[in-house]
Write a structure and sequence with these properties.
seven-stranded mixed β-sheet, about 500 residues, single chain, 18 helices, alpha/beta, globular, five-stranded parallel β-sheet, binds flavin-adenine dinucleotide
Length: about 500
Amino acid sequence: MSGGFPAAGRSSSENRNTDFVFLCIFVANDSDMSATLDAVIVGAGPNGLAAGIVLAQAGKRVRIYEANDEIGGGARSGALTLKGFTHDICSAVHPLAVGSPFFRSLPLARCGLEFIYPPAALAHPFDDGTAVLLERSVETTSQQLGSDAAAYRRLIGPVVRSWSDISEDILGPLKLPRHPIALARFGMRAIRSAEASARSHFKEQKTRAFFAGLAAHSSVSLDHFGTAAFGLVLGATGHCFGWPIPRGGAQALSNALAVYFAELGGEIVTGKRIESMSDVPPARATLFDVTPRQLLTMAGDSIPSGFKRKLQRFKYGPGVFKMDWALSGPVPWQASACKQAATVHLGGSFEEILESERDAWAGRTNARPFIIACQPSLFDSSRAPAGRHTFWAYCHVPNGSTTDMTTRIEDQIERFAPGFRKLVLEKRVLSPALLEKHNANLVGGDINGGAATLAQMFTRPTLRTYSTPLPGVYICSSSTPPGGGVHGMCGYHAARVALRKSFE
Ligand SMILES: Cc1cc2nc3c(=O)[nH]c(=O)nc-3n(C[C@H](O)[C@H](O)[C@H](O)COP(=O)(O)OP(=O)(O)OC[C@H]3O[C@@H](n4cnc5c(N)ncnc54)[C@H](O)[C@@H]3O)c2cc1C
């Protein structure tokens, strides 16, 4: 564990009764809580909670205001279809949470979080009934890649071996690296486009498709510089940690963060939307787990015009069109290897995935979109009644798209799992507009808090990253480095900046 992170507390086999703890810490209205606060956080997503924990660990009195009735933002679970089925409303698979240097330092297991590790991190099926699995072993994975076996080991092996040295630098703002040589080696591979990287390293179509599927999590067209980084990072987390799912759903991760925050004395007020800066009680530091667009609305005229223009120029990425199903049985994959992984990438060939991501980026919807799917109930029986299953999937669409992708998504699933539609008991669609209604941070359905382009990767949303020109006001959402995903590193870094600037 690197020096910047406090060690996790001793883990205990006895998990806390999280429901009980929540009754104690959540306060429906805050009128009676007049004691002086050191810090206020707006938004109880993974980054807001992470920021709260860092500040509370430093002995500060912290209160988080959350607009929704439940905490968790993009890491929440609930009933979306039928009674007895628990669905992940946003995030489902958590390689970045288990790979997060900050989350790894927290006693989340003691606070009720249990990760389930499917045998493989990911399955990528093809039309010929085969599938490539991302397995823990680089060697075993490479053996599925035909003549690309050695090339795969050469590309991903060094990232896997140096992960503990480079992860803190990759998952944060630009700064002097702790391990400059390892980071430079990673950077030379990562700065390329995923398309160029796949074409130059691999000869087999299946390997190229597998790598493109990993990189497509960027939501950026795969011919853009820097998209190879996503393929490398997600591949490496699969080999280093696996791609786990929290038992009970993503909410369990948020609940564990909140339990630990409460242990440190933190307070959370749910059901309280902050409409403007004047709604925020006085404190030395206020951290916003929101994207630039909402900050602009909340700050109004108090924000200096130069900074306002920079925030207005911040670019959002494509949206997602998401679906959830309650199924009468497991997904009937043609490639039976797909039963080994919670995450399944449905896009078929390299060229198809490139085109799908290029279209979403360029403002077009694709007839055969690349789908990221998850089948949590195969590995977690708490998600659905016995014998029944939950299924979760999304594809990228243009930001704010109003096109109904239901048929196209189900066609793609049916392509790799004939008979899928016959199993559907109930389904629920979350269009970009519905996602944004559920969480204001999902602007136009963008799940990464802004486009993850090279220009916006390490200096987002502006060169100031977590700071603003307003004294004591900080941004801690995924609109800051290192960007989208449930890892809490944006909140961690923002809170450290706030401690330095507002409390020293
Ligand atoms: C459909 C979908 C699938 C995803 N899948 C994955 C996945 O599998 N793995 C993964 O790692 N990541 C995934 N993500 C991305 C991940 O959820 C986000 O990157 C992450 O949640 C960002 O955390 P955050 O704290 O910055 O913001 P959020 O999680 O968005 O939290 C922000 C919080 O602030 C609250 N808020 C906003 N405005 C206000 C206000 N004015 N007043 C008070 N509260 C406010 C919101 O209600 C919300 O609770 C997915 C996202 C979506 C939408």
